[in-house]
UniProtKB/TrEMBL annotation:
<keyword id="KW-0663">Pyridoxal phosphate</keyword>
<keyword id="KW-0808">Transferase</keyword>
<keyword id="KW-0408">Iron</keyword>
<dbReference type="GO" id="GO:0030170">
    <property type="term" value="F:pyridoxal phosphate binding"/>
</dbReference>
<protein>
    <recommendedName>
        <fullName>Cysteine desulfurase</fullName>
        <ecNumber>2.8.1.7</ecNumber>
    </recommendedName>
</protein>
<dbReference type="InterPro" id="IPR017772">
    <property type="entry name" value="Cys_deSase_NifS_bac/arc"/>
</dbReference>
<comment type="function">
    <text>Catalyzes the removal of elemental sulfur atoms from cysteine to produce alanine.</text>
</comment>
<dbReference type="GO" id="GO:0006520">
    <property type="term" value="P:amino acid metabolic process"/>
</dbReference>
<dbReference type="GO" id="GO:0046872">
    <property type="term" value="F:metal ion binding"/>
</dbReference>
<dbReference type="Pfam" id="PF00266">
    <property type="entry name" value="Aminotran_5"/>
</dbReference>
<dbReference type="InterPro" id="IPR015421">
    <property type="entry name" value="PyrdxlP-dep_Trfase_major"/>
</dbReference>
<comment type="similarity">
    <text>Belongs to the class-V pyridoxal-phosphate-dependent aminotransferase family. NifS/IscS subfamily.</text>
</comment>
<keyword id="KW-0479">Metal-binding</keyword>
<keyword id="KW-0411">Iron-sulfur</keyword>
<dbReference type="InterPro" id="IPR000192">
    <property type="entry name" value="Aminotrans_V_dom"/>
</dbReference>
<dbReference type="InterPro" id="IPR016454">
    <property type="entry name" value="Cysteine_dSase"/>
</dbReference>
<dbReference type="InterPro" id="IPR020578">
    <property type="entry name" value="Aminotrans_V_PyrdxlP_BS"/>
</dbReference>
Length: 398
């Protein structure tokens, strides 16, 4: 078996996206800023892609800015809103403790510049309510930034309600929708979103391309100065092949969304059910308000890193949290944010599924994870102490 179960880290490109991209590499390769016919064909392609992205988000094409991916979109969104606030003497920002580092580290940088940051508690379920956001607002709040869905534990946040609270208070609302775009129906009007980030490689598009949606009237701050591309808000010759691939993958994901969500949710539920039977295992993240493909468990008495390596040997590609933190020995900030003690945060496993995964694969994963967890426990001093009663168990038997 060779199973890819790490779709929250990245996805393979769809055939359709690859085929759409190819002619933009060797035939329609003009620079959209050039006045000649080659350039004009590039400019037309760019406009088409912008319209497709806008259609999928329910906004106007003029509100779409092409950027290099989710991290850049998050940086530009948060920094732009902060500058708008600063000009009005408002330097308070509300966010959550389990945002992606592209948001959290941007907030760290703003803190050093005198901004006051409130990170909301996400509770054991990994959710925040509109009421929590409302209670955190102050007269000097300039931005609320709350992710649409969490990349590690898959929880889906009540974005429309949070957006409504912000709209009523006249505060700019940004959402990192990188895990949601292409998987959940998003509409910036219905959801009351002012700024939104998405990234193509999380929905079968190419890597290194994304979108920052900015509602009309919200001026963006440049991260990259240069030419007049993207209405002067992002210098640099547009990556037309990637932009075309993203638009194609996004349209395809909209068409397939419902059917795919049904199929992937069934696989997810089967996997959750199977892994729940392992003794002293606990599901991380809310059981209901959850992305179709996300499964995240902590197993007591083991190290997530060893679990990953052994699973890889058995043909299962998984993750112990976000790819961005693997390689570091710090436990996931997301698992700590939902109150998991260090030991449990270290023993975590994230399996993220897609429509290409099968029931056979799910059953193999249930069996194999069970065997590997049992093996690791058999050689774990921590597990021995738990079993002998020297240390208390933190989770239930099964
Ligand atoms: C992957 C991811 C990002 C970063 O996107 P890139 O395109 O890889 O820079 C940001 N936020 C979330 C929630 C993600 O899952």
């Amino acid at each position: 078996m060779n199973i890819y179960a790490d779709h929250a880290a990245t996805t393979k490109m769809s055939r359709r996206a690859i085929e759409v991209m190819l002619p933009y590499m060797d035939q329609i390769y003009g620079n959209p800023s050039s006045l000649h016919s080659y350039g004009q064909r590039g400019a037309e392609a760019l406009q088409n892609a912008r319209e497709q992205m806008a259609k999928g988000l329910g906004c106007s094409p003029r509100e779409i800015t092409f950027v290099s991916g989710g991290s850049e979109a998050d940086n530009q969104a948060v920094l732009s809103a902060a500058r708008i606030g600063e000009r009005k003497g408002k330097k308070h920002i509300v966010s959550t403790a389990f945002e992606h580092h592209a948001v959290l580290h941007t907030l760290d940088a703003l803190k050093k510049q005198g901004f006051d940051i409130t990170l909301l508690d996400v509770g054991e379920k990994g959710l925040v309510t509109p009421e929590q956001v409302e209670a955190a607002l102050r007269p000097d709040t300039c931005l609320v930034t709350v992710m649409y869905a969490n990349n590690e534990i898959g929880t889906i946040l009540p974005i429309a309600g949070i957006g409504q609270v912000c709209r009523r208070a006249g505060v700019i609302f940004h959402t990192d929708a990188v895990q949601a775009a292409g998987h959940l129906p998003i509409n910036v009007e219905r959801d009351n979103i002012d700024l939104l980030s998405l990234s193509a490689h999380k929905f079968h598009g190419p890597k290194g391309i994304g979108v920052l949606y900015a509602r009309k009237g919200i001026p963006l701050e440049n991260l990259i100065y240069g030419g007049a591309q993207e209405r002067g808000k992002r210098g640099g010759t547009e990556n037309i092949p990637a932009i075309m691939g993203m638009a194609a993958a996004f349209s395809e994901s909209q068409e397939k969304m419902e059917e795919k969500a049904r199929k992937v949710t069934a696989l997810r539920d089967r996997l959750i059910e199977g892994l729940s039977r392992i003794p002293h295992a606990v599901l991380n993240g809310d059981r209901e308000s959850r992305l179709p493909g996300n499964v995240n468990f902590s197993f007591e008495g083991i190290e997530g890193e060893s679990l990953l390596l052994l699973l890889d040997d058995k043909g299962i590609c998984a993750s112990s949290g976000s790819a961005c933190t693997s390689g570091s020995l710090d436990p996931s900030h997301v698992l700590l944010a939902i109150g998991r003690p260090h030991e449990l945060a270290h023993g975590s496993l994230r399996l993220t599924l897609d429509e290409e995964n099968t029931e056979e694969e799910v059953d193999y994963m249930i069996r194999t994870v069970g065997e590997v967890v049992e093996y690791l426990r058999s050689i774990s001093p921590l597990w021995r102490d738990l079993q002998s009663g020297k240390l208390p168990f933190m989770t239930k038997e099964a």
